Amino acid sequence: MIFYIACVLLFLIGLYVVISKRNLIKIVIGFSLIEYAVNLFFALVGFKKGALPPIINQTEQVRMGVARNFVDPVPQALVLTAIVIGLSTTALMLSLAFRLYERYKTFDISEIRRLKG
Amino acid sequence: MVELYLLLGVMLAAALVASETKNLLAAAVALGMVGFSVAIIFILVQAPDLAIVQIVVEILTVVFFTAVILRTTEIDTTVTGGLKMETSMFIAAFLAFGGLFLSLIIGVLRELPQFGEPLMRVAQEYVQFGLERTGAANVVAAIILDFRGYDTLGEATVLFTAVVGVLTVMRMVSKKKSGGV
């Protein structure tokens, strides 16, 4: 329970950064924090006490069909692709911030708001 | 489980540093600390695939942040010393919202199975028959590439779209000679 609450706290810190900071890079960092919180929550939900990683590596285990004591592989499979997609969306946000800086010479969104050109 | 408590504490502290520091490079490094703590937690909860991917992704994230910050500016001009009235009122409002959010979500978390005892109703079949049906010793790889292949195809589409977006935005020559962003 306390581990889940730590994930929620990380999510809340990320949300705070996204809606309160006026610097574009800080906002991107906030989105990354939210993403980590969700990924971590999924991985924690699938954890099983005293279980092994879901990799079948012993030949006798394969042959005999011994009951396999694994952690839940489904959340791990879902999170695996989500991590990579998080990287690509972060790269997209960073490139947009970079172009905005080239044009306005600042990361401050209250400066960027004014019309130009 | 002591190390899990420790890592979660380090993670939360690094997240606070990333949100409040004035130097953007320091914020990027603190974000890297959060990411690597998450990677180590993945190892502790028996998810080696996730830990490998998370380490690679975290290195790339910090490299991207550093590249952007070194080409622009590393001082966050919006952070000023001392608390202003407006900011402190906002923080108080957000703390109230956070307390409400936590108290609501704790009710939801109680409905989940206890930490360390997942249901595994779907996973039971994958674990039991994954090797025979797909020939993959790694059950996670069997799920993402075989049982849920269409899901992965959709996520690859999202990935491809985001990469095309980055290439479009970062293209050196703009179509219009003047005023093109």
Written description of the protein model:
The complex is a heterodimer of chains A (117) and B (181). Chain A has helices at 2-20, 24-45, 59-64, 73-104, 109-112. Chain A has one domain: Helix Hairpins. With 117 residues, chain A is mainly α. The N and C termini of chain A lie far apart (53 Å). Chain A has five helices and no strands. Chain A is elongated, with a radius of gyration of 21 Å. Chain B has 181 residues and is mainly α. Chain B has two domains: 1-76, no CATH class; 119-172, no CATH class. Chain B contains seven helices and no strands. Chain B has helices spanning 2-20, 24-44, 48-71, 85-111, 121-134, 139-147, 149-170. The longest helix of chain B is centred in the middle third of the chain and has 27 residues, at 85-111. The chains are: A mainly alpha (117), B mainly alpha (181). Chains A and B meet through helix 1, helix 2 and helix 4 of A and helix 1, helix 2, helix 3, helix 4 and helix 5 of B.
Question: What is shown here, in short?
Answer:
The complex is a heterodimer of chains A (117) and B (181). Helix content of chain A is 71%, strand content 0%.
Helicity of chain A, as a percent range? over 70%
Structural class of chain A: mainly alpha
Tell me the CATH architecture of chain A: Orthogonal Bundle
How far do the termini of chain B sit from each other? 51 Å
Shape of chain A: elongated
Helix content of chain B: over 70%
Q: What's the alpha carbon Rg of chain B, rounded to whole Å?
A: 22 Å
The amount of beta strand of chain B, in percent, is under 5%
Major sheet attributes of chain B: none
Distance between the termini of chain A: 53 Å
- Rg of chain A is 21 Å
Number of strands of chain B: 0
Number of domains in the coordinates of chain B? 2
Give the helix/strand class of chain B.
mainly alpha
Mean pLDDT of chain A: 87
Put simply, the count of helices of chain B is 7
Query: Biggest protein-protein interface?
Result: A-B, 79 and 86 residues
Q: Which residue ranges of chain A are poorly predicted, with pLDDT under 50 across at least 5 consecutive positions?
A: none
Number of helices of chain A: 5
